[in-house]
Each structure stands twice: as structure tokens, then as C-alpha cells.
């Protein structure tokens, strides 16, 4: 990525303590002043707090990685999932449209049912099979309907060196147990949270270059919409775990790690159904913004080096 250049206004960041949000806080800071209000100020379950915050700060960009992400729990908490994943996003979009701010929002591969035989493109029909996926799709649609200048990045299997995620859980269990059984028939691509943050900074730089200090709505008129942004390549959860343990064994040759076994989704039932295929085609992102997401296994190597 090129040397960051300051934007001409504030960047309002939600969810700055989350996996993606914490990386964005670091990556976006060189671009301009980043404001990350505490929940006491900006509560995504309180629509008025969203409106008040945006009206007070009048940001040039609103970057929203915050979401209700408890996939299984959403099945029993649909109202809360929709409040955060749809209603809050609608309010953000409405306020952004009023002040001419650009919105960057993160969505998920779970908007698809996973029955596709090839990587999904942005125009493929959506058909979520879980409350979480349906609430995220509703958020995408709500944002688009506000008329705000927006970019929606669908991603998959997000992980990093901090927080709660599949990678850290597997490495912990692999040190504690002799045998692990991991689902091997769900296909997708792990995505490093920092790769998403770097991509976001790159896109903002490009948009600001096109705007040249003027209104963002005009600069984003031709590029607003949905983009797929997941790690390059593909694997399964079992493949992800196996590669993580293989690489970590190289770093810790004297540590005993668990052996892992591939199982089917049917052997590991969960309250929420998962897509069998979460593969996303990211060609549109490269074509529009000249950004190619790194290969998932190479990003994994960088993450493990930080642990």
C-alpha cells in the first residue's frame, strides 16, 4: 500500500475493540483523526445514540465493523441480532446520507446458503440459512436503501492474533488434548483481520484521491455497492486447523500438538446451520480498487509469528 495521506475529515469507527475494529484503529489512524466512541456514547442497540453521535461529530467516513456475530446464539436472540445488524446500519446510512459521509460496512459469506458449486460473485442470489446470515443480509439491504455513498465488504472466517477466534481456540486445544475432530466438509477461506484493515485503508485512499477534497458521494457514485473480500485460496475448517498446527510445529518442534481428524457437518450439529461453501470470488475488488487479498496460508504464517 502507498504511504497513507491524511483525509480531509473525521473517521468514525465502531467496534474498535473487536478483531477487525482494533486493526482498523491502527491502520486508519495515519489517514486522519479516528474517533472510536465508547459504548456509553455510541450504543448500536440505541438508535438515538447513533444519530446523536453522527450529528455531533459529522464524520467524513463511517467505518462499521461492529456486528452481532454470535451465530448460534442469534437463533434464540433474533430481535437483538436484527437490532444491531439491520436497524443500526439503517440509522448509520440515513445519517450519512444527510451529511454526505461515506460508509464502509462489513458483511459476511453467511448471506449465501452454501450450495453453490463455484466461488460466489456479488450478484449471485442470496439465501441465508441462519438468523445471523439473514440479519446481515437485511443490514446490507437497509444500508443500500438509505442512498448513502457506501461500500459493503463481505468476508469470511475472520481471525487474528488477538480476540476470540477459531485459530486461537484450535491452538489452545491442540496443546491441551491428544485428539481433535474438526469439520472437513465446509469450504471457504480464512481472512486475517489485518488484511481487511489494510484493504479498507487502501480503498479510502483511492476514494479520497478521486474526491480531491470534494463530496464523497460523487467520488463513490460509480463504485458504491458490495464487494467480496476474503483470503485468497480455499480450504476447510479441518484444513485451516491442520495448516495452523503444521506451521506451529515448525516454530515449536518440542511441543506436542494434538492429532486432528476430519468429520462431517452432520457429526458436529450446531443450533445455526452453516453454509457448506463459503467461497467468495474477489475479482471485483481487484478490478475496482486494484487490491488483491493475500493467500490465506501466507497470512496465517504472519499471524502465527505474532503469537
Explain this structure to me?
It contains ten helices and twelve strands. The chain is an alpha/beta fold and 307 residues long. It has a domain at 11-163 and 191-231 and 279-294: Rossmann fold (3-Layer(aba) Sandwich). The strands form four sheets. The chain has a six-stranded parallel beta sheet, with helices on both faces. It has a two-stranded parallel sheet with strand order 6-9. α3 packs parallel to α4 and α5 packs across α8 (237-251). The radius of gyration is 19 Å and the shape is globular.
Portion of residues in helices?
A: 40-55%
State the distance separating the first and last CA atoms: 24 Å
CATH topology of the domain at 11-163 and 191-231 and 279-294: Rossmann fold
CATH class category of the domain at 11-163 and 191-231 and 279-294: Alpha Beta
- Look at the structure and give the mean pLDDT: 95
> What's the overall geometry?
globular
- The number of helices is 10
Structural class: alpha/beta
What about the largest sheet?
A: 6 strands, parallel
> What is the number of E strands?
12
Residue ranges: pLDDT <50 for 5 or more in a row?
none
Question: If you compute it from the alpha carbons, what radius of gyration comes out, rounded to the nearest whole angstrom?
Answer: 19 Å
Instruction: Write out the CATH superfamily name of the domain at 11-163 and 191-231 and 279-294.
Output: NAD(P)-binding Rossmann-like Domain
Q: Based on the structure given, which CATH architecture of the domain at 11-163 and 191-231 and 279-294 is correct? A: 3-Layer(aba) Sandwich
Give the strand order, joined by hyphens, for the main sheet. Answer: 2-1-3-4-5-10
Beta-strand percentage range? 5-15%
Helix-strand string: EHEHEHEHEEHEEEHHEEHEHH
Amino acid at each position: 500500500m502507498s504511504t497513507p495521506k491524511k483525509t480531509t475529515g473525521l473517521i468514525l469507527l465502531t467496534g474498535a475493540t473487536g478483531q477487525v475494529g482494533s486493526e482498523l484503529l491502527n491502520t486508519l489512524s495515519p489517514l486522519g483523526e479516528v474517533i472510536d466512541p465508547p459504548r456509553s456514547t455510541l450504543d448500536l442497540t440505541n438508535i438515538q445514540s447513533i444519530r446523536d453521535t453522527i450529528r455531533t461529530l459529522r464524520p467524513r467516513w463511517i467505518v462499521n465493523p461492529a456486528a452481532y456475530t454470535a451465530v448460534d446464539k442469534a437463533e434464540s436472540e433474533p430481535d437483538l441480532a436484527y437490532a444491531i445488524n439491520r436497524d443500526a446500519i439503517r440509522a448509520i446510512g440515513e445519517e450519512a446520507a444527510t451529511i454526505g459521509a461515506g460508509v464502509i460496512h462489513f458483511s459476511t459469506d453467511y448471506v449465501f446458503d452454501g450450495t453453490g458449486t463455484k466461488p460466489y460473485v456479488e450478484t449471485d442470489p442470496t439465501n441465508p440459512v441462519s438468523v445471523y446470515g439473514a440479519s446481515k443480509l437485511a443490514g446490507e439491504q437497509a444500508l443500500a436503501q438509505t442512498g448513502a455513498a457506501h461500500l459493503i465488504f463481505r468476508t469470511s472466517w475472520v481471525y487474528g492474533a488477538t480476540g476470540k477466534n477459531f485459530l486461537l481456540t484450535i491452538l489452545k486445544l491442540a496443546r491441551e488434548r491428544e485428539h481433535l475432530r474438526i469439520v472437513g466438509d465446509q469450504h471457504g477461506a480464512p481472512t486475517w483481520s489485518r488484511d481487511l484493515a489494510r484493504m479498507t485503508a487502501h480503498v479510502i485512499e483511492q476514494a479520497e484521491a478521486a474526491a480531491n477534497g470534494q463530496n464523497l458521494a460523487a467520488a463513490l457514485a460509480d463504485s458504491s455497492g458490495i464487494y467480496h473480500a476474503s483470503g485468497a485460496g480455499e480450504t476447510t475448517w479441518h484444513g485451516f486447523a491442520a495448516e495452523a498446527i503444521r506451521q506451529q510445529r515448525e516454530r515449536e518442534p518440542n511441543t506436542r500438538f494434538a492429532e486432528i481428524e476430519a468429520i462431517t457437518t452432520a457429526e458436529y450439529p450446531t443450533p445455526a446451520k452453516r453454509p457448506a461453501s463459503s467461497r467468495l470470488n474477489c475479482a471485483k475488488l481487484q478490478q475496482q480498487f486494484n487490491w488483491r487479498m493475500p493467500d490465506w496460508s501466507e497470512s496465517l504464517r504472519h499471524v502465527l509469528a505474532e503469537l
